[in-house]
Design goal:
- This protein has 115 residues and is mainly α.
- 68% of the residues lie in helices and 0% in strands.
- The longest helix is centred in the last third of the chain and has 23 residues, at 92-114.
- The relative contact order is 0.17.
């Protein structure tokens, strides 16, 4: 759920400010962050988070010139959420994910408040 919150400003930015044809991959990447939420088993959740997290991270680094870097926080949060599929996993990755989500949303509020 935190990854979806990190990716929601991307969709908001595309819809409100800059709706061009090149933004399709950006919106597609933002929407795919919700896919692991549909997993019914912990193993499927882990697999979905790891695969989508690494794909989003790779695509966002390779497509940084096209604004894909906006998906880096969501990919990191997905990778942190994958650690929580194990009930005895340490809670530190989720604390990091919460801080990343709060920082992302705070920055987005600041940017939209400036304009």
């Amino acid at each position: 759920m935190l990854a979806v919150l990190c990716a929601a400003p991307v969709v908001l930015w595309v819809v409100l400010i800059d709706a061009r044809a090149i933004e399709g991959p950006l919106v597609l990447g933002a929407v795919t962050t919700a896919v692991p939420l549909f997993a019914r088993e912990a193993a499927n959740f882990w697999t979905g988070c790891v695969i989508i997290g690494w794909i989003l991270f790779a695509v966002s680094v390779l497509g940084c010139m096209f604004g894909m870097f906006l998906l880096v926080p969501a990919s990191i949060v997905l990778l942190a959420a994958a650690t929580q599929a194990d009930p005895e996993a340490p809670r530190l990755p989720m604390h990091v994910a919460i801080v990343i989500t709060a920082a992302t949303l705070g920055f987005v509020c600041w940017v939209f408040g400036q304009g």
